Amino acid sequence: MKLLSITLCNFRQFFGKSPEIKLAWGAENITVIHGNNGSGKTALMNAFTWVLYGKFSAAFAAEEQLVNKRALAEAEMGKAVGCWAEIVFEHDSKRYQARRVCRAYKSENSVEHIKGELFLQVAKDDGRWMPTAQHPDDIIGRILPESLHQYFFFDGERIEQIVRHDKKAEIAEATKELLGVEVLNRSIKHLTDARKSLETDLIVIGGSEIKKLLKEKQACQKEVEQLSQRKVEIERELINQGELKKAVNGDFLERSGAAEWQKLREELENQRSLFREQIVQASSAIQRAISGRGYAVFLADAAAEFNSILGNLREKGELLSGIGRPFLEELLVQQRCICGAELTPGSVASENVGGWMDKAGVGDVEETAIRISDRVNEIDKQVADFWEEIDRQQANISRGRSELSRVETQLDDIHSKLKNFPDGDVSGLQKRLDEIETKIGNLHRETGSNQQQIESLNVQVSALEKQIDKQQLNEQKQVLAQTRIAATQDAIDRLIEVRSRLEKQFCSQLEKRVQDIFSQISFTPYIPKLSDKYELTLVENTSGKSALVAASTGENQILSLSFIGGIIDGVREWSQKNTLMGPDSSTFPIVMDSPFGSLDEIYRKQIANKLPKLANQLVVLVTKTQWRGEVAREMESCTGREYVLVYNSPKADCEEDAIELGGTRYPLVRRSPNEFEYTEIVEVDYGF
């Protein structure tokens, strides 16, 4: 998708029809839009997502009130006031015009807002614009799926939310769009339905025993489906409860006297998570040690017995080395000993030398015994190292549990204080929080119970399938139906394996991309890690071991930008390979509102340098302070177009502001000529 322009009309702060904002592309691929807070930067960014998806960012307030206030005030009673935004974009050599329109009707006491409607046109070869034959949402969804839009249109000040754990399910689902996994899911579903249909046919034509087994199998599978559906419902409910918990915790921070206790509780909860992770890592290390070296502990008695046997053989002289059979054979052929004595056949000297022939063959056994002895002696060292590692990790677990107990005791103390807080509102919040945590605990327990049932039922299904396979199918129709069922199940198994490998491969490649981008921006030694559930965390290596890092807001912003960059690179590569049916494009825009948040100078510079390389096209909405110095220097060589949002304030005592660009002074805030507030869009003219 290549964004060409955006135009607004009566959309939030923008009164009337705005000038067309043409967006930069090519070598100078950055469009910079300057504006003070409250001038409409967030509204402009949300205009993109509203037109394409009917969606808004978290920072966009009063979503239903889109129509400009001045347009409403000047409208006649009962007459519709139109509000629209229009985006022109290119994709796959076709030019599209997307316009979403909403209306409002003013009455004496209220304003009725009508939900927006999307219209999409495509330019024909002769230049005429024609409505698209397919539904607009379907076309836009294939070009840039709705589930992925948060990676390309986002609020930079809240970008760190992408790495929040409660977003992992959303991220995982969105990533499936990239891989074309949904195609595989649909194929698996259709084949599963086909298998069920074939099994139903087999019930009709099969013997009584097969009918019985198939009914049992279908009953088990139906129960597994119900439990799996409940699992999805629980995951959604856990996300909802997590949001409620966050909201309640936020309310604590706003309560006088309780805010400090809440801040301390949040800090202690972070510590609790870290200690729990350390205990898990130590337990995993013990498991690895037992798996890799634990066998040596049980070989100690056998090793001692081997050394005893070997020592006895040596004492008896039954293990010899140094004289080989070829050497003795040569002496007998030459009939002369090394001492010069003749070895005439039949002589005593010849018989003595010949007697050594039987003993010389034991030399090979001796050499082998020496090699085995070295390996056996190594076991003692392995045992010592093994117990040293076990003791160290046990100490880590003990220390972690001790710290965890201390933290939980402090948390219990805070819980008691807030529960019995003199302010009834605070104690009420704690009671609400207790209810939420109880519900979360119950949901987790139900999840564990359901998973056990699913595993047990799957075992039963496998056993029933084996019994069904053993049944004698005599009739030709039975054989054919069974063959089709087996072929269908084989296809399902293969598709599941392809899906699994595809997801693992993409996840691994995505982690490497995120690590590379993060290392280029951040000066910290931390390393991003991406789990198979798309949980993004930061770790650091200490003495060769990984430990979780409690990332700051700035680090989370950089981590999120790195994740977005990795996603875009991944889309490009997979699209170019024509992987399944993922997005059929390798060009992507990024539209960012306030991308630099509260970052310091070094990070601002690094991100300003990296941003133009993340996407084919970049639209940046910034305040004057966010654009200052290092950001402007890093981006100016790639900046193709610039615009200024001029906010007209109706306040008589408003403090005016301006920005100087290309030697020209442009107003950012000025006195409105009427009683309304509104924003104008002015293009920066560099005279080229």
How is the topology of this model organized?
Blueprint: E1 2-11, E2 14-17, E3 21-22, E4 30-34, H1 41-53, H2 69-74, E5 80-91, E6 94-106, E7 111-123, E8 129-131, H3 136-143, E9 153-155, H4 168-179, H5 181-205, H6 208-253, H7 259-293, H8 300-315, H9 325-334, H10 348-360, H11 363-419, H12 424-470, H13 476-521, E10 527-530, E11 536-542, E12 545-548, H14 553-576, E13 589-593, H15 601-614, E14 617-622, H16 624-627, H17 630-635, E15 639-649, E16 657-661, E17 664-671, E18 678-683
Helix pairs in contact: 5-6, 5-13, 6-12, 7-11, 8-11, 9-10, 13-14
Compact summary:
With 688 residues, this protein is an alpha/beta fold. The chain is built from 17 helices and 18 strands. The longest helix has 57 residues, at 363-419.
Task: Please provide a written account of the structure.
The protein has helices spanning about 40-55, 70-75, 135-145, 170-180, 180-205, 210-255, 260-295, 300-315, 325-335, 350-360, 365-420, 425-470, 475-520, 555-575, 600-615, 625, 630-635; strands at about 1-10, 15, 20, 30-35, 80-90, 95-105, 110-125, 130, 155, 525-530, 535-540, 545-550, 590-595, 615-620, 640-650, 655-660, 665-670, 680-685. It has about 700 residues and is of the alpha/beta class. The strands form three sheets. Strands 4, 9, 13, 14, 15, 16, 17 and 18 form an eight-stranded mixed beta sheet that branches. Strands 1, 2, 3, 5, 6, 7 and 8 form a seven-stranded antiparallel beta sheet that branches. The protein has a three-stranded antiparallel beta sheet with strand order 10-11-12. Helix 6 packs antiparallel against helix 12 (about 425-470) and helix 8 runs antiparallel to helix 11 (about 365-420). The chain starts with a strand and ends in a 5-residue tail after the last strand.
